[in-house]
Amino acid sequence: MKRRILICNDDGIYSPGIAALAKVAARFGDVRIVAPDVEQSSMGAAITSSRPLRYRRTALPGDFEAYRVNGTPADCVALGVYQWSRVDVVLSGINLGPNLGSACWHSGTLAAAKQAALFGLRGIAFSTAVTLQETEPDFVSLEPFVEQVLQQLLEEKGMCLVNVNLPDKPKGIRWTRQAVKQYDGDVVPGKDPFKRPIYWFTVKPLQGEEEGTDRWAFARHFVSITPLRLDLTDEKELARALVRPRQVSAVKARSGVPGGAAKKAGRPQ
Asked: For strand 173-175 and strand 223-227, is the pairing parallel, antiparallel, or unpaired?
């Protein structure tokens, strides 16, 4: 039986990145695309619980079986898995813009892969660089690297969640860890046409990441592959807390109300 590959993204079903990923993924199995009907960037792992969702067949280049959903990336994976039995792996992307370091917390692209992992499936997220001069990345030049990554990861049965970032003009592939020491979120104030205050949430450039991190590899034009996990438990701090001596202190009544007065007031002593 051929491998079943569900493909999602957060840029919307008509993004060129999802078509590029489907083209390469089709070499490894049967492909079905389920993606948001509009862009859902930075939506994170949100799911829609306040209204019903629609699942509609959509024509895409390449004759892939594709459906659009009026919901989030996580919604798309949930519906895709529900509608298509025996899904083996969920691929998300290729996102227009990298998802490195702290961006992993907000990324809708990575959230689709996380949703797959929550279902007990494997989820792999792909993102790439976008420059102001490009209308879209050079997906043709990225194809060989996407294929190499899939050849390796599809055989790694133990890795349930992986984040992949493809720089422009890659010169190799590196296994990396997530850069967590800096946060690139920023608030930029402004004014609307009526001079009322407004605010944009955006990102700021970061400098000086540690060697071996996803940001470090990406800045040096290496494809970054970062294995992730759903369990956020800080094992080191938990172990330290468990060996700490227990401090048990007697609780003393400090009501200040004499016993007789408590009885008269109907309160327990």
From this structure: parallel
Query: Distance between CA atoms of 220 and 175, rounded to whole angstroms?
Result: 13
pLDDT in tens, 4-39: 999 999 999 999 999 999 999 999 999 999 999 998
Backbone angles phi, psi at 254, to 5 degrees: -130, 35
Which residues contact residue 146 at a Cβ distance below 8 angstroms, ignoring those fewer than 6 apart? Answer: 20, 21, 24, 94, 126, 166
Q: How far apart are CA 126 and CA 99, in angstroms?
A: 8
pLDDT in tens, 227-236: 999 999 989 9
What b/e readout covers 158-187, taking b as 16+ CB neighbours within 10 angstroms? ebbbbbbbbbeebeebbebebbeeeeeeee
Q: What type of residue is 40?
A: Q
Residue 210 to residue 78: CA distance in whole angstroms: 36
Residue linked to tokens 């509609």 = 56
Residue boundaries of the structural domains of the chain: 4-180+209-232
**H helix or E strand, kind and range, residue 110:** helix 108-118
* Those residues with Cβ within 8 angstroms of residue 179's Cβ, 6 or more apart along the chain or in another chain: 100, 101, 102, 209, 210, 213, 214, 215, 216
CA distances for 191 relative to 168, 187, 201, 257, angstroms = 35, 13, 14, 59
Say which CATH class 4-180+209-232 falls into. Answer: alpha beta
Confidence label for 149 from pLDDT (cuts 50, 70 and 90): very high
